[in-house]
Structure prediction request, 579 residues.
Amino acid sequence: MNDHPTKRLLNAPADIVTEALAGMIAAHPDLLALEGPTGRAVVAVDGPRDGKVGIVIGGGSGHEPAFAGYVGRGLADAAAVGNVFASPGPQQILDAARAVEGGTGVLFLYGNYTCDVMNFDMAVEACAAEGIPARSLAVTDDVASAPRDRAGDRRGIAGDFFVFKIAGAAADAGRDLEECLAAARAANAATRTMGVALTPCAMPQTGQAHFAIAPDSMEIGMGIHGEPGMRSAPLGRADDLADELIETILDDLDARRNDRVAVLVNGLGATGQLELYILNRRVAQVLADRGITVHRTWVGEYCTSLDMAGASVTLMRLDDDLAALLDRPCRTVALTVGETPTPVARRRDRPARGPAPTAKRKVQGRSTLATDGTVTPQVFRAMMGGAAQAISDQRDWLSRLDGVIGDGDHGITMEIGWTAITRVLDEAPADATITDLCDRMSTAFLDAVGASTGPLYASAFAAAGAAVSDRLNLDGPAMAAWIRGMCDGIVSRGGAALGDKTMIDAWLPAADAASAHDADPVSALKAAANAAAGGRDRTAQMESRRGRSAKLGARSLGHIDPGAASACLILESMKQYLG
Prediction:
């Protein structure tokens, strides 16, 4: 692995996405605008209108031109943009939905990753609460990430390009919500992708590659978040690589002579068109030899992975309807098809929507709250500040752990979330209870992070606060109840179980140990921290069964889970504060 940081043209790492979006809007004011309080909903200037289904796409930054590059007339009406390699959060997605909803519903489209599924599902729930009909589809085109009998587990990679185009055309043609969803499903079912990585990518915040590829090797079946591929292979000739990619795709599609396909040869960020055209030459030869007609071909960068060198090949098998929708005109930053569509009247201005009313927690009077226990709200604030510092101090270590079996952003994501917590704790009233503080932490973490840790820790803080809502101060049993609440909140949102190689492998042993040693908060936290460390270490012997690392199978063995590692840091810092 290269020890020299990748050179970047950046200002402050924390401002990467905000500044990039500002530059994009400045370059294309005739096409794009930012709407909504989160500043992460990129909306088409021409496209959203009354009586039309709103198409909202989304995902993390670092894949440019995906996702905001596909916003425009005839394609997506808006994109919700997350942090680098992290799903947008529910509020960012909801901003996009509110901006484009024309009275006939909204269709969400995104890649099939645990974090995106959780956040878009939460946005669907929020839309329903506001009376906006919403449906969603996760793209599953990556043939390398799961066998055909588990196609629903596959990742969404460059095939997003075709699914987004088909859904956007269907909506632009005036089809209703269910018809747009059916068109998107048909496109997804007809689309397959396989890719190869020649070099790893580096997260902008660290500048370090988070996994290694030997100079004479390549990773077959890599993911677009820098996840290692399914297997390593010697670097060979372009034709041999193209043969493997295209033959695997054709076999998976059950492609036959006289089929008609659309082709995408996609660069991953650091592979130029010279090489991509060499790949496409061979792809075209193989398809011709098979008697398969190429309807359209695109070659270039359409779904990247930061500065990764490599490429992917995508095919969509066409019927008459898919071909017609593919050919329907669109105009976006990244893709223009046909004549520029005639501008249309935008939807009528609607009253600004705020968050739907939520069921408020029944608040006990402060005078009725239990006051025994050494962990006061002031002490709790300090403990959370210590946890935030511990996460920040170990950010790069956590990201390195994640880079080996995931996408390398766990430390960065956790630091962003805990920085938001620190800010909201500083702003909280002096008389806020621990439950009040937990509710504020929950909202702050979710709004700042998205990804998978956003919903998981937001649910954790909310459940932990509810578990101690009858208390002003925490004694031993209450401290154990708070830890149990953290665990229960994560399980209720994510569904992971002990042995899945996730943060639950630390939080569940911690909760059990705290309950068994709850004489006082110090004892509870000491037992919890020790048990969490044991659970963390055991994850090295587990094969991943959840999240992105589950695609690696046995290659995930021998590495501790980064989520379990960060859970240990939180509990250890809390223990150390109390002594």
Summary: Confidence is low (pLDDT under 50) at residues 355-359. The CA atoms of residues 135 and 548 lie 24 Å apart.
